[in-house]
Amino acid sequence: MVITLAFLIHFSQAQNTPQDYLAAHNAARGNVSVGMVTWDNNLATYAMNYAKLRAGDCKLIHSDGPYGENIAWGSTSTFTAVELVKLWIAEKSYYNYGANTCKIGKECGHYTQIVWRESVRVGCAKIVCTNGGTFVVCEYDPPGNWDGEYPY
């Protein structure tokens, strides 16, 4: 199960390196005592190749590939990887661990993918679309968000 969410955000700091993505992911994982993810260049390449396919329209359409996937769109080219990942992490407030569900009418699948215990590798990419917006995708291996399973 993969969930899509659009963010209309404006940020200006350039925090888009692999280390930036990892730091944000691993901070969230550490908060729930889940091991760290490592950067995977193959996943990052897959993410970039898919992001390039979305450059013409920036539509929030999943790749339907073999990995877990978080995608987002921003209305400008200036938001950062760190801020985007933090918005995904903010979905934690909508996740009920005891019931293993999201609050009704809310999404939390980006968060649960980030903290999915079995997902140990990540690769992300950010591109500026032809309309001036930004498309960001993170790929996770092994994928998470399996129905009925807890993330940690």
TrEMBL record:
InterPro entries documented for this protein? Allrgn_V5/Tpx1_CS, CAP_dom, CAP_sf, CRISP-related, V5_allergen-like
Gene3D superfamilies in the record, alphabetically? CAP (3.40.33.10)
| All copies of domain SCP, residue ranges | 16-148
Pfam families linked to this entry: CAP (PF00188)
Name the UniProt record assigns to this protein: SCP domain-containing protein
Signal peptide range equals none
Top-level taxon of origin? Eukaryota
**Function of this protein?**
Probably involved in the defense reaction of plants against pathogens.
The similarity annotation says: Belongs to the CRISP family.
Is Signal one of the keywords UniProt gives this record? yes
The yes or no answer to whether the keyword Hydrolase is present is no
Q: Which GO terms describe its cellular component?
A: extracellular region
The UniProt keyword set, sorted, is: Disulfide bond, Pathogenesis-related protein, Plant defense, Signal
Which GO BP annotation is one of this protein's? defense response to other organism
